[in-house]
Design goal:
By secondary structure, the protein is α+β, with helices and mostly antiparallel strands. It has a single domain, classed as Alpha-Beta Plaits. It has 4 helices and 4 strands, in the order E-H-H-E-E-H-E-H. It is elongated.
């Protein structure tokens, strides 16, 4: 399974909904939603600033992550949603062994 960091910023109506139903209830709703696609919610933290919530989820693959992003974004509850692919240290080690033929612009 692949792991992702999700950064979400609620729309005005979305934030009203969170305040009405409570943060704990929202976390449980997200846990159920992610579980329905064969994934799991590792962590969910509310924040203030440019991002309202940070989540770490594990889902089967990129296509599932894209389906989650599309479904949540289409709901109108968020004004922004960003998915960041997370790599394990072992995956980073493997990436370091790959030979990449790259020429920088102007190089």
């Amino acid at each position: 399974m692949a792991k992702y960091l999700i950064k979400a910023c609620y729309s005005s109506d979305g934030l009203k909904g969170v305040l009405k139903e409570g943060g704990s209830n929202r976390v449980e709703a997200v846990r159920e939603f992610v579980g329905s696609v064969g994934g799991s919610l590792e962590s969910f933290h509310f924040a203030f600033g440019d991002t309202d919530a940070y989540l770490i989820v594990e889902v089967p693959d990129n296509a599932t992550a894209a389906a989650v992003a599309a479904t949540v974004s289409a709901s109108g509850a968020l004004k922004s949603y960003e998915t960041v692919v997370l790599l394990t240290p072992a995956e980073m080690d493997e990436a370091g062994t790959k030979v990449v033929d790259y020429r920088p612009p102007g190089g």
